[in-house]
Amino acid sequence: MYRNIYYATHPGAVAGASAADLRDLYLIRNLFAPGELRLDYVHQERMVVGSASPLAQPLVLPGDGGRPFLERRELGAINIGAGAGQVRVDGVAHEVEPLGALYAGMGARDVVFESPDPARPARFYLASTPAHAASPTRCLPRSLIAPQRRGDADSANQRLIYQYVVPGACGSAQLLMGLTLMNAGNVWNTMPPHTHERRSEVYFYFDLPPDKPVFHFMGRRDETRHIVVRNEEAVICPPWSLHMGVGAAAYAFIWAMGGENLDYDDMQGVDLDGLS
């Protein structure tokens, strides 16, 4: 069912790690394939990340051990495809526009992904966390979400943040999920960096030209490391690790978090003077 399993790591795993070691531990590659549904398991917060890329045939979210995938989980899906997609949750169809989102709560039995126009297919990025309570399924069009404007030109990090699965927009048990779009000419996805001691996060970078990578920074504040990330690759952000990234061009990314609370702003800022 799962292509890859990524185990939780101690900060000591970074000390002495080569660039290849860091990619093996924290970089999730080859997430999308036409006509396929792919899932990877991340032991931090027991997150599952993956994709559904339906063409002419629908794609069904598989069960786990003979039980529905969402029996004790919740799911967020954001459509990064060129065309609108459709997600059927227990037989109810929801149209998900490009860069729109859908949330399916714990207890949903059947989740099916479709592309109404296979010539302009939908492509869904998926993130799932364990759930202890059920929240209703919600379709979340980007046009109905008021973005937060963050950053400034002096720091080259002006961006729009669309908070899809957060309190006040869409209820959940522990999943937080949203989309960040960088303004033209801006390349830092957060500045200064931060950590999340009480949650883990996965960044999924997309809308990057093939020759324009993102340099994703991680590690302890006194021993920073970086991973070179290409288009449509994801990076696991452990709770002990700072995270920030800079691209060779403007880009977009999806953030998904799981942890012990639903406070989006529960983060610890990292002073740039302390970085080394």
Can you give a write-up of this model?
This protein is an all-beta fold. It has one domain: Jelly Rolls, CATH 2.60.120. It contains 1 helix and 23 strands. The strands form 5 sheets. Strands 1-3-4-11-6-9-12 form a 7-stranded mixed beta sheet, with no helix packed on it. A hairpin with a 2-residue loop joins strand 7 and strand 8. The protein starts with a strand and ends in a 7-residue tail after the last strand.
Secondary-structure-based class equals mainly beta
Count the strands? 23
CATH fold-type name: Jelly Rolls
Strand order of the largest sheet: 1-3-4-11-6-9-12
Total count of domains: 1
Binned strand content: 35-45%
Q: Supply the CATH superfamily name.
A: Jelly Rolls
Name its key features:
single chain; 276 residues; mainly beta; Jelly Rolls; seven-stranded mixed beta sheet; 1 helix; 41% strand
Present the secondary structure layout:
Elements: E1 5-6, H1 19-26, E2 27-28, E3 37-42, E4 47-52, E5 59-60, E6 73-79, E7 85-89, E8 92-96, E9 101-104, E10 111-114, E11 124-130, E12 138-140, E13 148-150, E14 159-165, E15 176-182, E16 194-195, E17 199-206, E18 214-220, E19 223-229, E20 233-237, E21 244-247, E22 252-259, E23 268-269
Parallel strand pairs: 1-3
Antiparallel strand pairs: 2-20, 3-4, 4-11, 5-10, 6-9, 6-11, 7-8, 7-10, 9-12, 13-14, 14-15, 15-22, 16-23, 17-20, 17-22, 18-19, 18-21
